[in-house]
Structures
1.
Amino acid sequence: MFSTYIEVALLCHPVLAFLTVQNPKMHIKHSNLQYFIFSFLSLLVLRYACSAYVFPSEISIALCATNDQPNPIAHIYPGNATGTLNGTIAVIPISLELARQMIPPQYGILEHAYRALLPSFPKGMYPAVVQALHDHEVQAFGYKIDDFSRTGIEFPFVDMLNDNQTSFKWAPSMLMTAGHDIALNGAMDYGTNTFPATFDPGCDAYRAVPNSKKPGTTYFSARSSEAGAASLTTVFSSAEEEVFPLEFFKNFTNQPTFADGKTCDNMIRLYNTSVTTAPNQIQSVKGTVRANLFPFPGEKEWKNVYGLRLDTAFIENNYLPCENFRGYAGHE
Ligand SMILES: *[C@@H]1O[C@H](CO)[C@@H](O)[C@H](O)[C@H]1NC(C)=O
Ligand SMILES: *[C@@H]1O[C@H](CO)[C@@H](O)[C@H](O)[C@H]1NC(C)=O
Ligand SMILES: *[C@@H]1O[C@H](CO)[C@@H](O)[C@H](O)[C@H]1NC(C)=O
Ligand SMILES: *[C@@H]1O[C@H](CO)[C@@H](O)[C@H](O)[C@H]1NC(C)=O
Ligand SMILES: *[C@@H]1O[C@H](CO)[C@@H](O)[C@H](O)[C@H]1NC(C)=O
């Protein structure tokens, strides 16, 4: 899907190039100022026409400025989809019984796999995870798409191949920046319940809560454009204690992800680039998550949720046969 849109974008760009080449002829008849005004206006009109046709709300999204650092790996993997994901990831312990009710019955839950990583995780519980992320400088072959935000509650350690070994992450639903058709269609093609949404902040992973009593308090919220359909809000503060080891986050964020099970998304999140390894980039946090999101029945609130605020670079390989990942344990 991503590549289809790049092709459409390419169709637009030659028109722009053609116009810029043709315009210098007018230079002879008009003054410099007139020429500049004319070419500026025609580029604007063309860009608008192009955007309105292909990306209806590109203009409104493009007005956003972000604090995210640039994609540090685009030049290393120019032929792959790369980007950065800045935001909060946290573990929501739920009962295994509830997890079993929500995860489709044909898929097992690899309890031994998460217990190998979290030996003291409470008995009878399962680690669902929340991700609240800002996708930044996502690109391939030098074509960048607009930034967008997304959030959802995901279910790692799912035995989708029934081999009692390979962990997959089931991501059944997602709130995603309204109007960003590339991202929305990209998620829908996995069979994800995708909710176009308004995010606060609009162009960042989270924002500071002013005058908060707790240090390092940040806020993030997403509300579906269709009122009441879905929402997710988080408030996190700095935590002294690290309840779940970084290895656990690395492990589940790198599990192949699926929604309806027809294809799998291989999102390779790198924890070894400058956006992650610079001093104080990974922050332990504790907070509250409130969500009204399928497959949870009704609105839920979880307190004392532990997680991390961090940015990572990623490489994404889309729409792969899930069978390809039999025995996959994540990248080294
Ligand atoms: C991640 O986002 C936060 C909030 O906008 C920002 O302060 C931080 O600098 C970002 N981190 C990186 C590495 O871009
Ligand atoms: C980059 O994309 C190619 C072609 O899709 C794929 O074979 C390769 O594994 C990707 N590279 C990484 C590091 O994922
Ligand atoms: C992820 O955790 C599982 C154990 O649950 C382990 O077998 C696998 O090697 C881990 N992957 C990585 C990349 O550490
Ligand atoms: C799955 O593998 C685990 C660990 O190797 C083992 O303890 C468990 O009995 C296996 N379950 C089944 C159903 O084979
Ligand atoms: C980061 O990790 C990836 C995958 O594990 C590896 O290919 C790459 O060389 C590493 N980069 C650095 C800067 O260490």
2.
Amino acid sequence: MKISRTQITPEKFYKNRRKFIKQLGLVSSAFYLAPTLFSTANASSKLTEYKYITTYNNYYEFGTGKNHPVERSQNFITDPWSITIDGEVEKKITLSMDDIKKTFPVEERIYRLRCVEGWSMVIPWLGFPLNKLLKKANPTSKAKFVKFESILDPEQMIGQRYPILDWPYKEGLRIDEAMHPLTIMVTGLYGKELPNQNGSPIRLMVPWKYGFKSAKAIVRISFVEKMPTSSWMKSSPREYGFYSNVNPNVDHPRWSQATERVIGEGIMSPRIPTLMFNGYEEEVSHLYKDMDLRKYY
Ligand SMILES: Nc1nc2c(c(=O)[nH]1)N[C@H]1C(S)=C(S)[C@@H](COP(=O)(O)O)O[C@H]1N2
Ligand SMILES: [Mo]
């Protein structure tokens, strides 16, 4: 696996950022940062280097090791690709990746990905609001939740030959969470196409929830009436609930969620405090205002 050719450092990238964005034909580029993300003058607010973002991954379809996705996904075929939107909709639709690229201009969003395992990275994603895609299908009044399914392809994905998770990988959001403007579909990072190990050609990114909500390689989105059971809920309901909001006050049954290790900062650097809703409390807490977040974890 060679990644050196495509590697770019944050510094280089930011010098050439405007140029990149022009080359990609991006219509708009905007930063959507939690106000808190860059307010602390600590190292934790730096962008994580491309090499860490693309070599330290969770993508169980390719194995459970952090190095497995980069090592085993390079030949994964992502073209042609399409997403079907079905379930409680007036008319089921299927959009090809080409349709999606033409219809939804991408913008840059710098979001911190906080894994439930206790580490985080700050990643400049390229994507567009999920609500734009969902609005293409007309959900019926019965629709209350949105279910996401990753691709099922055990021939190409060695991890799917073993019952590690309930394949295909499934995740879910309440409709209002899915429609929130911070929730995006990602098609790139650092101004480039999304690498296979990060969920090419298209993945979800919900910045106030733990990383596992952000399903990779999505092929199907369904509007449903009942709360869907995600693959993680199914594998360990005590550890993984439906909501999965980043919440430093609710421990994982086996470890604390109060702090996180920032990937790439070096082994000696201290863990940093984890912020409520990953720093987006102001933007999203109204979604949960009457809920006991210890019960709905
Ligand atoms: N299809 C699929 N999506 C997935 C996963 C997975 O195993 N399969 N892992 C999740 C977890 S646990 C995390 S932390 C993030 C990691 O994303 P990254 O590798 O781009 O950092 O992807 C999430 N999306
Ligand atoms: Mo994760």
3.
Amino acid sequence: MNRYPNLEIDLKKLRHNIEKVVERCGERGITVAGVIKGFNGIAEMTKIYEGSGVSSIASSRIEHIIRARKAGISGPFAMIRVPMLSEVDLVVEHCEFSLNSEKTVLDAINEACLKQGKRHGVLLMADLGDLREGYWDKEELIQVARYVENQLPYVDLRGVGTNLGCYGSIKATPEKLNELVELAEAIEMGIGRRLEIISGGGTTTLPIVFDGTVPERINHLRIGEGIILAYDMMAQFGVDMTFLYQDVFTLRAEIIEVKEKPSYPVGELSYDAFGQVGEYEDRGIRKRALAALGKVDFAYPDMLMCRDKNIEIMGASSDHLILDVEKCSGEIRVGDKVEFDLCYATMVFATSSENIHLTFKE
Ligand SMILES: *Cc1c(COP(=O)(O)O)cnc(C)c1O
């Protein structure tokens, strides 16, 4: 018998999404790193990436990659958060390549390679305005590229990359990515050979891949959300992602109380459990249901999406979700299960919550 809350993961739908994105990117000469951090590197899901056409499996957490290796998945693996100095040994041990932006770390990678008798590939990151990781000073980037090429015998400079739409919400445009191509070409001048990889971002670059305006030399993307959920791009940017499944995940929660109650709190308003003053609309007496899961499992109640559009999410505390079921299609009873779709923000928590029981549909 299933335990609740339950997160059902449809592995067939995931495989479909991976293969379709790989195919659409392939038409433009772009290979795809499958990014597994959004679902906490759940090994059963990571396994689906193997042999589905991605050129590597990538995460910002070395723990996910170690877990995948322990599960017998063979990679190649990429570390896509610039490595902590303290994890360089693990990154060299478990990953074929990593994204980098600090000379000190590159030196440490070279040392670790020497110690382990290995080689390690690197992409140098350029910050084109999103203001997260990467070299801001382009001259410095070109110099460090030359340094890696000539001074670090065990480190292979495989290319350059950038990140857009993460912190600064900067849009991936052909102009932005042309800046990256120009940088790559300046590096190529400096080292006297062609770079293998020009990595033009993540899911937010997909729209210009689909409309064909992505610069030709961009030949690599690191795709998380656009494969796993393919929801946020559609909801926020109006990109047509209907050729993918938006329901790889089904979150089910059990109802533990159903009662008629006022919709406006009764008494003096103060702070809630998370130190906030709530906002409440007085709709009179309504039929309400409590579901047995809470913010600990999804963080943002307003970003959970109930599949029954007649059920309204009113709010949550750490372990309770409060639903307005006045208009619910059928009678709701204690013990019933309610289904939700996830978006990126709720997926990262739901897949990391130890209280949520996973089941896999093959
Ligand atoms: C998370 C991440 C990605 C993938 O982002 P999505 O929006 O999920 O496609 C790509 N590159 C880096 C550096 C990341 O940290």
